[in-house]
Amino acid sequence: MSKKIILFASMLFIYSASFSQTSESAEAEKNLSKATEHLKAKKYQDALVSIAKAKEETVKLFSGQLAVALPKTVEGWNQNPPSEKGTGMPLPMGQGEISVTRSYSNPSLKKPETPNTQPTEKAAAPAAPTSATAPPTAGIPGGMPAAMPVAYGDPAITVTITNNTMWANEVATAHTNATSENPMPAYAMPGMEAQKTAPIKVGEYRALERFDTNRKSGSVTVIAGAGVIKVEGNNIENKDILAKVANAVDYKVVKSVLGE
Question: Residue 5 sits in which domain range?
Fold first, then answer.
């Protein structure tokens, strides 16, 4: 019985997605037709409004094609339903960037517990040392206490597919700078030793991995043709899940939609 319910739900989802795309396509065509009529009537402001509406619907259709490449589930991490605002991210006129994002949650993981900071017994506060006798505070130069990075919020993963050239350049540069003796070295910025960055491979594709062991957060960014896939994780115990999610993306779809 449960299998029948799952099958029915899957068919309903596919039908709804198909109906939504058909509706958005018809809406885009209608607005383009209106824009043509406004242009002929020399109503240029109205024409621009219709063109903007047509572009918004087209961006949703474009993003819907990319969303097909995103995995539904990976090792207990399940894709959450898309926002009602749409799958795409409409951008200002003249920009060629496209982007689609989905979030993932894992019901089996416990929510992080908030540490109890209330003292069990009231203790007298120690006297503040004078400037002459106060020892320097460890951590940050100048006597400021070192911040203790912690992970915030529920465990979560997000996956974004885009053609963002800035992300692509970052990955390409990291691989270019790798030496022949150690083609994929990990490195950390001074003062941020907990955050390691390393050029890696996801399947046959170049990628860049970042992970902060203190904050339990990081990302894996992959270049696939003209597309860029970024998997980000927050409050996750193991960075390996980021690469596994990245591996589950359908890169053939990404390249067919965004180009080689």
Answer: 1-67
